[in-house]
Specification:
Length: 77
């Protein structure tokens, strides 16, 4: 399987939020914000593969215990 997408860093995304990465699905790229525990990374890969299999690129948040769409600064729409 050809995987073409991004696993995005959870620690940066806590502040930025998922909306900061809105340009990725606009460019046809799948993306998942993940934590750093092994199970987080594995689930992130699974979510990325599901996006690719469905042909619907998006920015998914696997690391929901810390990341919100608008981040901590609320600067993104």
């Amino acid at each position: 399987m050809n995987l073409d997408g991004f696993l995005l860093p959870g620690h940066v995304s806590i502040m930025l939020g998922s909306a900061a990465y809105g340009f990725l699905p606009d460019a046809g790229k799948a993306a998942v914000i993940t934590g750093f525990e092994p199970v987080d990374v594995l689930e992130g890969v699974l979510l990325l593969m599901e996006q690719l299999a469905d042909g619907r690129p998006a920015v998914a948040i696997q690391y929901r215990r810390a990341v919100r769409p608008r981040g901590t600064h609320g600067r993104w729409p």
